[in-house]
Amino acid sequence: MYKALTEAPTITSEAEYRAFPALNYSALKNIETKPINALEDKDRKPNEYMINGDIFDLLLLSGMHMFSASYHVYDGPPITPAKQGLCDYILDNKLPFALTGADDADPATIASVLEAVDANDYKAAKVEKTLLKHVLEDSAEYLKQKLANSDKTMISREVFNTITDEVMIMKQHNLTKYWFEPSKSSKLYTQCPIFFNATTLSGKRIAFKGLLDLLIIDHEEKMIEVGDLKRLFTKGSLLGTRKEIMNGKLYLQAAQYSYGLRTAREGGEAWLFDREGNLINIEGYSIELFKNIVYNYDQGQPSIWKYTRKDLHTGTYGGQSKFGYPVRGFLDLADDVLWHHKHEKWEYPKSIYNAGRIGVDVDLFI
What we know:
It is built from 14 helices and eleven strands. The chain is α/β, with parallel strands linked by helices. The chain starts with 13 loop residues before the first helix and ends in an 11-residue tail after the last helix.
């Protein structure tokens, strides 16, 4: 698992990147709290926050053609979330049904609608015929469009318009527009895979990987700027971004990606690609400190957050946070991921397994 690389991997698509057996930020951030989410092949249904973040990234970094390959914007009569839930349950679970009028529904369709009603605790109606009308007639256009785009995630026009407006703000705001239209002497790269070897704190040499959202390289001056897009809810204040960085353990990602870039710069066991799969040589280049390019969607404002060298060192090796508790770095957490793979135990964090019936120390105070 995550065997150290001896040569540059061949990566020509995002699918190949995601399938490649190297340790990523997602596994590292989850391993202490919910280890099962560290498994990349775990079938997890994305929530609204994840979907909106993905749309935001696609529209900013990849364009409308890539968005349209994964999403369909629903254009039709308004449909309530409750009715949408019934339709999604039927289609997502591939229940048998025929799109007819309520009076013409066959027994299989009736059974599917009633199962969806029970599963969603739908209380808008109780009479069977009314329930059938809510799905087969009131929601007919939604069902038609979802069936015609079964390989895509369907979103509302309102959601699409909101995120499109956010994208335009990011591209036009004085704080952030540089990241999408850098100076003429620089080249912008997006969604760049990086692979590198590193030694965990227990001495295991393994492979890591990352996907760099924004990379601005001035090949004449041999200078690199690196940023990662984030769409965050900061609870009423832009300064709340710091807390969200801690909660999401974004410092692990910043440290991991920075470590890989430094290794590539020094000619070590690291390989940086553009999104087409071409190797980018950055040996001897200077690297600016890692930044999060943030859209604070509850504030309707962008902001930029730069990690200090101390942040990156702590995110790599561990240390103490200003919030008063210890923090583990990615080279330490990597050992936990390896432990869970070795023992095939994913229900609890490693510390709970190791403590057993004796229990984990509460250990609240210094």
